[in-house]
Design goal:
This protein is an alpha+beta fold and 297 residues long. It has 2 domains: 157 residues, no CATH class; 110 residues, no CATH class. Helix content is 23%, strand content 27%. Strands 6, 7, 8, 9, 10 and 11 form a 6-stranded antiparallel beta sheet that branches. Strands 4-3-2-1-5 form a 5-stranded antiparallel beta sheet. Helix 1 packs across helix 6. This is Lipoprotein.
């Protein structure tokens, strides 16, 4: 969805690495931002003719049910990881002011010159579109795009379906499970344990000994994951990992990460601390950083 999305310096990297879904993909100092005023009249859904037999016109794999459920999951992800109370998370595309309310949705099918069709959704709360993709049979919301952004579709559209969703209080995202995802997790764990070996061989080996490693939970359609290495002195290192699928299995490739000098010194409303706490709490796996290197080697 997702992924995916939404800081300054190294802390800024947390948001960019964890989720870029505040606008488009792929869904992170201490000042509480007051909720913005909700307009008295929300923007109306386009008055347009809804196609008969809508699901026959949707691209293969898309249905009203999975479009609705993926949008609801995306809304929750945005609310969970990018609450407006955390500095830097305010956006004209935020859902926070509408918690407890029902919003209207129209599913639009855009067709380009070549005839390729792409699914979007327009809501009754703003002039932006939600973008939908499908990967390995999984339909997901891939972010939001406004009219002034390059990815806004320029082609004609047809309204395929309409429905309503309730913006509920945020909760831990439903990342899902599968045997394929288990293989992805195994590849991540292998790569991250290799990083432990590197850390515990270096000049700061003693500091890295017994560091906790938290593998973030993720959606199966994502092409990578990440983990937090947390030392006992409070130093926290974020390591993103790219996953490459080969022969029904996965290989993990390390990417450039970043560190935070002392995660415990950050205010709870700091976007870095907020994302960190949620990701380690929701970790799909965790282990202690150990070295297999014998003394003197």
């Amino acid at each position: 969805m997702k992924k995916k999305i939404p800081f300054i310096g190294l802390v800024t990297g947390i948001t960019l690495l964890i989720c870029s879904c505040s606008t488009t993909s792929n869904p992170r100092n201490g000042v509480v931002i007051a909720s913005r005023d909700i307009p008295k009249e929300t923007i109306q859904v386009t008055e347009n003719y809804v196609s008969p037999n809508p699901e026959e016109k949707l691209p293969t794999g898309f249905t009203k049910v999975n479009i609705k459920s993926s949008l609801e999951e995306y809304i929750n992800y945005r609310l969970w990881f990018y609450p407006e109370k955390v500095q830097g998370n305010y956006s004209a595309k935020s859902f926070d002011p509408y918690i407890g309310q029902t919003i209207d949705i129209e599913v639009r099918l855009y067709s380009d010159i070549s005839g390729k069709k792409k699914v979007y959704a327009h809501t009754s709360i703003g002039e932006w579109l939600a973008i939908f993709e499908i990967k390995n049979g999984i339909v997901y919301c891939d972010g939001q795009v406004s009219k002034d952004e390059n990815l806004w579709p320029q082609d004609k559209f047809e309204v395929i379906e309409t429905f309503s969703v309730e913006v509920k209080q945020p909760h831990k995202p439903n990342y899902g499970t599968s045997s394929r995802k288990d293989r992805m997790i195994a590849a991540l764990e292998t790569k991250l344990k290799a990083l432990c070996e590197d850390f515990t061989r270096g000049s700061d080996a003693e500091k890295w000994s017994n560091a906790m490693v938290y593998i973030e939970d993720f959606y199966e359609y994502e092409s990578g994951g990440g983990a937090w290495f947390v030392r006992q002195d409070g130093y926290a290192w974020y390591s993103p990992v790219h996953l490459v699928e080969k022969n029904n299995d996965f290989e993990a490739e390390g990417m450039k990460g970043f560190g935070l000098k002392n995660i415990n010194s950050l205010d709870k409303y700091d976007p870095g601390r907020d994302n960190f706490e949620k990701h380690i709490h929701d970790a799909v796996k965790q282990f202690t950083c150990k070295s297999n290197v014998k003394p003197g080697e």
